[in-house]
Amino acid sequence: MNTLDLTPLYRSSIGFDRLAGLLDSALSSDAVSPNYPPYNIEALEDNHYAITLAVAGFTDQELDIKVEKGVLSIRGEKASNEQHNYLHQGIANRSFERKFNLDDHVEVVDASLDNGLLTISLVKEIPEAMKPKTIAINKASKVIEHQSASKSEAKGDKAA
């Protein structure tokens, strides 16, 4: 597989290091990280999102959710190491860690575990300063005449 060198991007841009880091990790993480547990990301409505992970066999005490520096981390750590005599083991009960990069204004609102599905609710809250504003156009513009001091003095001299 060909690799993509992002070094020129780092050399010629300022302030885009987070974007370059995201691209770099996205291109390299798929080859290294396993696809466990499977997950969905869905847009529920404007600025509302949900991430759902299939975590069958995990309890809420075995799951840990953290947000740090714009990265949502979900970690599952199996508490018991009971020995079973499986004839077939198709349900993975291994520990995992999944990370999701969040946009600057995306906040985690809620998390729930139901029927083996962990659902994390997210909301993108755009600050008022960044929301688009409508600027009213003044319909009537006033023309202000500028009179120089010498013209007003001349008019004053004629009146006297």
UniProtKB/TrEMBL annotation:
<protein>
    <submittedName>
        <fullName>Hsp20 family protein</fullName>
    </submittedName>
</protein>
<feature type="domain" description="SHSP">
    <location>
        <begin position="30"/>
        <end position="140"/>
    </location>
</feature>
<dbReference type="Pfam" id="PF00011">
    <property type="entry name" value="HSP20"/>
</dbReference>
<dbReference type="InterPro" id="IPR037913">
    <property type="entry name" value="ACD_IbpA/B"/>
</dbReference>
<dbReference type="InterPro" id="IPR008978">
    <property type="entry name" value="HSP20-like_chaperone"/>
</dbReference>
<dbReference type="InterPro" id="IPR002068">
    <property type="entry name" value="A-crystallin/Hsp20_dom"/>
</dbReference>
<comment type="similarity">
    <text>Belongs to the small heat shock protein (HSP20) family.</text>
</comment>
<keyword id="KW-0346">Stress response</keyword>
